[in-house]
Amino acid sequence: MPGKPNVAVFDTTFGMAMEPYAYLYGIDPKYYEKYSIRRYGFHGTSHMFVSGETIKFGKLPEGNQRVIVCHLGNGASISASIGGKCVDTSMGLTPLEGLIMGTRSGDMDPAVVQTIANGENLTVDEVLTILNKKSGVAALSGVSSDFRDLEEAAAEGNERAQLALKAFKYRVIKYIGSYTAAMNGVDAITFTGGIGENDFSVRADVCKNLEYLGIKIDPEKNSVRGKKVQISTEDSKVKVFVIPTNEELAIARETVRVAGLA
Ligand code: AMP
Question: Structure pTM?
């Protein structure tokens, strides 16, 4: 299509709003200058869309709405944003950082790489392939990366599947706690992604550990799959939502804006 505008929408754009104290690693800044090593954040298109929808759908009061979005899918990440602007997000230089995912390890002491590489006689690249493709809940459970399989196995008494689910939820709970601290509070928490939209027991178990924030979940409202809905009770101190992500729509909107088509 000659003469037509070409638009690239980067999945890292949302994370560009982070402040240096949030995006820099605790290493010599010469590595940032030489190799652009910093935290970028991925799933940015989804986090941007869902945090915006949370403000609109949740009718959050005008101003600096503090929103945590839990994008829980095969890849999983969490973001904190104020007024739609990213404050922090759990993926880093690559999508490997942060939550335990389907096949990715998430946060780890980097010395684990050295220990596995030396112990198994592998290169750093080979260990990183393991951490990206052969880790996460799939490796912890020995069952699957798919939460439908994990829930089924756990219900049948498979202890490794139970452990994998627990480890996944534990880290989500920890990230929500740290992002609440980073923003000095939170007004709304939204679940999205294949797991966030469908797995109500993950949502229920995570929220059970957020009672210290005054969060109360209505089990009936939480029993939905793939629908835009408020799952917190009216007297919950923090609103909790399920909002299906729509990255295609977000990309289309950005394209219209950047190409000046509106
Ligand atoms: P995504 O990467 O966002 O497309 O999410 C895909 C993942 O969502 C799958 O690997 C499953 O783990 C999870 N998922 C999809 N449907 C369900 C469901 N009904 N219950 C639990 N998990 C689900």
Answer: 0.97
